Prior knowledge:
It is a single chain. By secondary structure, this protein is mainly α. Helix content is 80%, strand content 0%. The chain contains 2 helices and no strands. The mean pLDDT is 87.
Amino acid sequence: MRRQSTSFADLVLENKKQLLNDPEALAKIEERIDERSTSDKEKYTKETK
């Protein structure tokens, strides 16, 4: 019997669907995005001074 393989693209889509349906995971992702954008802004203001 052959082992059925799933393409990488299919795995990414499946993972994306699961994340979009998980409010706790979405909150963590949004928090990380906010942290990164804040640190990027701080770096930019330090460089321009």
